[in-house]
Design goal:
The structure holds 2 protein chains of 2 kinds. Chain A contains 16 helices and 17 strands. By secondary structure, chain A is an alpha+beta fold. Among the domains of chain A are: about 100 residues, Alpha-Beta Complex (Flavocytochrome C3, Chain A, domain 1); about 120 residues, Methane Monooxygenase Hydroxylase, Chain G, domain 1. In chain A, the strands form 4 sheets. In chain A, strands 1, 2, 5, 6, 7, 8 and 15 form a 7-stranded mixed β-sheet that branches. In chain A, strand 7 and strand 8 form a beta hairpin. The longest helix of chain A is centred in the C-terminal third of the chain and has 26 residues. Chain A starts with 7 loop residues before the first strand and ends in a 12-residue tail after the last helix. Chain B has a single domain, classed as Alpha-Beta Plaits (2-Layer Sandwich), CATH 3.30.70. Chain B has 2 helices and 4 strands. In chain B, a hairpin with a 6-residue loop joins strand 2 and strand 3. The radius of gyration of chain B is 13 Å and the shape is globular. In chain B, about 45% of the residues are buried. Chains A and B meet through helix 9 and helix 14 of A and helix 2 of B.
Chain lengths: ~575, ~80
């Protein structure tokens, strides 16, 4: 295994779904369910059985809009406010209106959600305003349940193929994609009428403080390939300067996790064990307060559970040590940390792009359509703010259905064979060099410089220095990077995606000359929020081979927000410590 | 320019006595998201070839004989 053979073949389909984590399987399932005679291909860099952010399942839904607990209007309002007003509400509203159907469908797949003694969904309050968090007692079974459905519908699954570039026709329509096998370096050209990007977050952008390249918050397979592919296909990417930064257990890549432990009475505290934030919901404003406390004399920051009853702690451990990040228990064991005795030290994560938790993603409308004809996006890489796992499922379903309908109405677009030849040369270039720099060093250097120059608080002169250093790495990557086998080639191609994302992060952050979203876009030399000039999306795209940025107005709200409500997430700090 | 061989202690350990890769099992190699496990041509057993681990545990959870143990990578332990 891993020897380079570099053959080439071609397949044709109606709908191509790239990424088999969360949104992708649902998109493929819904496309095939909608039109069973359609040929639907699901392409995955790893193996659909255990790929993506939820490879070990999930402990709950963070944003369930369940009748009786919340309404689509309420949820849309909350997310608009949490995202500092920069939000096209139509996709959020479409999600909120549809997600209860998806919950019931997942329930039928065998994924159970917690119910109380009356048989009602046992929804918990974690957000600042509304109630949306629903535990999943058998959340470890999610991927298996999805996989069964895909097999039942006869979706064509291609594992261990990494998509590298989208193909477009002369008229700009999407024509398919090029992919490379991660164990043989064989190339695959996929022609498709519509393509859905579900490649997850750009999680390998910043470097974790441990220095271990793979110790990222996001599944380390999520190297931002989807962001890079959207860029090179000419699609618009929105608000990339609104980074993802999360509060995590120090040195471990899992959340502490206040969404699970909070409803049981745990909370985020400073070194004295005092609360300093009103609400543990992850927003940029909350992260700014977290950062301030961390740097203050009252830091560091902890998750406090040791005041809870041992039985309660046992229940929390049963959830946290079994799903999503099940190695958490052995991490604590190694450090001698017991939730009953000590508070758990926390820190902030490396930066990344991820709409699932913030708003940095490929621009989409309420049908999951990007700005490129025939190209859709769903899940962590599509900019429906704060959409989490249930957003990936729901928006994946919306994308799959629309893309399948569209594929029936259009013909297959022709790609230019010269584009494929060029991409083949780009992909295989590192395998053709005798000597040079291995991908792990290119990647380490890029990500170390991301930390040095792009991590908030953001400083103009530093980000410009970062751009100059990235250009030097680009030169090395283009002319000197080597890959000695197919596995290393996958890492080399990922390093290229990571560098693309670093350049996008710098360009987007420099463009928006104000501060917004708390820590996510805290520009020290433009410290104030400037609604007069910057109450808009920023859209980054490639024009004439260069990254360029422009403003895009926020679509008129469909759920009105009163002026008095707009600042709710700005008032996070507790006025008098408890 | 020759490349250096830098040693690294790996997070995934395989109990060779329990591993049945030599009988055709490929489960851990199949399910690893980062694709870091391989079957050794010398021993016929699974091993961690690339130190690129997200310590996510599918390899351990899905192994039919309980041969796989994942520990937290040393750098963040």
């Amino acid at each position: 295994m891993d020897e380079i053979s570099a053959n080439q073949s071609e397949v044709t389909c109606d709908v191509l779904v790239i990424g088999g984590g969360t949104a992708g399987p649902m998109a493929a399932y819904k496309a095939k369910s909608r039109h069973p005679d359609a040929k639907v291909v699901l392409l995955e860099k790893a193996n659909v059985k255990r790929s993506g952010a939820i490879c070990m399942g999930m402990d709950g839904l963070n944003n369930a809009v369940i009748p009786g607990y919340a309404t689509a209007e309420q949820y849309t309002k909350e997310i608009t406010i949490a995202n500092d007003g920069i939000c096209d509400q139509a996709p959020v509203y479409a999600y909120a209106s549809r997600c209860f159907d998806i919950i019931q469908e997942l329930d039928r797949f065998g994924i159970r959600f917690q119910k109380d003694e009356n048989g009602e969904y046992d929804v918990k309050k974690v957000h600042h305003l509304g109630t949306y968090v629903l535990p999943m007692p058998n959340g470890d079974t999610v991927k298996k349940a999805l996989y069964r459905q895909l097999r039942g519908r006869q979706v064509l699954i291609s594992n261990r193929f990494m998509a590298t570039r989208l193909l477009t026709a002369a008229d700009g329509r999407i024509a398919g994609a090029v992919a490379v096998n991660t164990r043989t370096a064989d190339l695959l050209v996929l022609r498709a009428k519509t393509v859905i990007l579900c490649l997850g977050a750009a999680g390998r952008l910043g470097l974790p403080q441990s220095g271990y390249l793979w110790g990222t918050y996001e599944n380390a397979t999520n190297s931002g390939d989807g962001y890079a592919m959207a860029l090179h296909a000419g699609a618009g990417l929105a608000n990339l300067e609104c980074y993802q930064i999360n509060p995590l257990i120090k040195d471990y890549n899992g959340p502490a996790c206040a969404y699970v432990a909070g409803p049981f009475g745990a909370y985020t505290a400073n070194a004295a064990g005092n609360r300093f934030i009103e609400c543990d919901y992850w927003s940029g404003q909350m992260m700014q307060e977290f950062y301030n406390e961390l740097r203050s004399g009252k830091g560091p920051v902890f998750l406090k559970l040791n005041h809870l009853h041992p039985d309660t702690i046992g229940t929390i451990e049963e959830i946290l040590h079994k799903v999503e990040r099940p190695s958490r228990g052995r991490f604590h064991e190694g450090r001698g940390t017991d939730y009953r005795a000590q508070m758990v030290e926390m820190h902030i994560s490396e930066i990344g792009f991820c709409s699932g938790h913030s708003a940095s993603g490929v621009f989409v409308d309420e049908f999951a359509r990007t700005t490129a004809a025939g190209l859709y996006a769903a899940g962590d890489l599509a900019n429906v703010p704060h959409n989490y796992m249930l957003g990936a499922f729901t928006n994946g379903a919306i994308a799959g259905e629309h893309a399948a309908d569209m594929a029936r109405q259009i013909t297959l677009a022709d790609y230019d064979p010269a584009d494929v030849a060029r991409e083949r040369d780009r992909v295989l270039a590192p395998t053709r060099r005798e000597d040079g720099i291995p991908p792990n060093q290119i990647e380490y250097k890029t990500r170390r410089l991301v930390n040095d120059y792009l991590q908030p608080p953001k400083v103009t002169a530093k980000m410009e220095l970062g751009q100059a250093r990235f250009a030097e790495i680009r030169e090395d990557l283009d002319t000197r990077m080597i890959a000695r086998n197919a596995h290393e080639l996958m890492r080399a191609l990922e390093a290229a995606s990571i560098l693309d994302c670093a350049e996008m992060a710098a360009a987007a952050s420099l463009f928006r000359t104000e501060s917004r979203w708390g820590l996510y876009h805290n520009r020290v030399d433009h410290p104030d929020k400037n609604d007069a000039e910057w109450f808009c999306h920023t859209i980054l795209r490639k024009r004439d081979g260069q990254i360029s940025c422009e403003k895009r107005p926020v679509a008129p709200y469909i759920v009105p927000i009163e002026d008095a409500e707009r600042g709710a997430y700005d008032r996070h700090r507790i006025s008098r410590p408890t | 320019m020759p490349l250096a061989q830098t040693p690294s202690t790996v997070p995934v350990q395989i109990d060779a006595g329990k591993c049945i890769a030599d009988k055709g099992c490929n489960v851990c190699v199949d399910v690893c998201p980062l694709d870091v496990l391989r079957i050794s041509e010398e021993t016929g057993k699974a091993y961690m070839k690339y130190d690129e681990c997200w310590y996510c545990l599918p390899c351990e959870a899905d192994c039919p004989t309980g041969a796989v143990t994942v520990s937290i990578p040393y750098l963040l332990r």
